[in-house]
Amino acid sequence: MHLSVYKWALTREFVSADETADVLGLAHAEAEQILDDLVNAHLMETRHDDESSGALGTWRRVLNPQIAAARLAATESRLRQLMLDLNTSRQRFDDLFNVYSVLGTARPTQNSVEVFGSLSDVVSLVDEASRGCKTEMISSQPGGGRPVEQLEQAVARDLELLERGVRMRTLYQHSARHHPPTRAYVDKVTSAGAEVHTCPELFGRLIVFDRAVAFIPHHSLPGGAAVVRDPSTIAFLHSAFERAWDLGTPFAENRPDLTALSDVHRNILHLLGEGARDETIARRLGFSLRTCRKYIAEIFDMLGAESRFQAGYLTADRDLLK
């Protein structure tokens, strides 16, 4: 239909949408659209209120197809230049990306993970984070009592934190209760307001300041650490700490006498001796998993055990289930 309109328009100097529709039997909207398409293809041009020709209103005039071809060639030339510019820009971005890959990742950002292999560097960073801490510090210290030199370094730093009103919570394993230097450290910091719990087992070593920066051990460099600032990772670590904290026992709390073992404790000991898992014990005794694990932690604390195997050995050695 576009070709028919073009052929017909060649017989006239100017055409309108109304005339095109009437002569060729088209709807006005269809005729208007075809004429617009021909204008966009540079096969016609639009004239408005052409008084010299006696044509008032909006009219179209046919153009030589060579004009359309010339204009198309100019458009193609601009497109080629645009593609050349795009390719040049893409190459520049590739070059910038290569530079960023080498240098940008070495620059610390708000949400970065940095690795330090030197113990002295890690201690300095922990001290710096401690000085800037405003609300909360949590730490998990597995492996029994801490070395005396570490405790000596920590006590002054931690007392200064507590004096500023920072809430400090620390997790140890039960065996730390029998380590005199650790007990002396705990006595000092708890007297100043710190909270300390112990658990049979801990998920790993961890220090977090203000839920903004966390320190975790390097997986292969002794004394090294990864410094984490990613909010999602820190939230996950904080959640793991809270679960262990809920199952822990206050450090200053005297360990109950073994005569305090209740029927519930003894039933759990029987099932532990059978090798039952926590989920199985909770289901068989009608507890929630959290409550079950709380009872197991109490049993380990009473026995002074740090593992299921040790708990089973101590139970049998002391004839607790007879």
Short description:
The protein is built from 12 helices and 10 strands. By secondary structure, the chain is of the alpha+beta class.
Descriptive overview:
Helix 6 links the parallel strand 4 and strand 5. Residues 51-55 have low confidence and may be disordered. The chain has twelve helices and ten strands. With 322 residues, the protein is α+β, with helices and mostly antiparallel strands. An eight-stranded mixed β-sheet has the order 3-9-8-7-4-5-6-10, with helices on both faces. The protein has a two-stranded antiparallel ribbon with strand order 1-2. The chain is elongated. 21% of the residues are buried. Helix content is 53%, strand content 16%. The chain has helices at 2-9, 17-24, 28-40, 65-103, 119-132, 148-163, 180-191, 231-247, 263-273, 278-285, 289-303, 308-317; strands at 44-50, 55-62, 113-116, 136-141, 167-173, 195-199, 206-209, 213-217, 225-228, 249-250. Helix 2 (17-24) crosses helix 3, helix 9 packs across helix 11 (289-303) and helix 10 packs across helix 11. The chain folds into four domains: 2-63, Arc Repressor Mutant, subunit A; 68-106; 113-250, 2-Layer Sandwich (Endonuclease, Chain A), CATH 3.30.870.10; 258-317, Winged helix-like DNA-binding domain superfamily/Winged helix DNA-binding domain (Arc Repressor Mutant, subunit A).
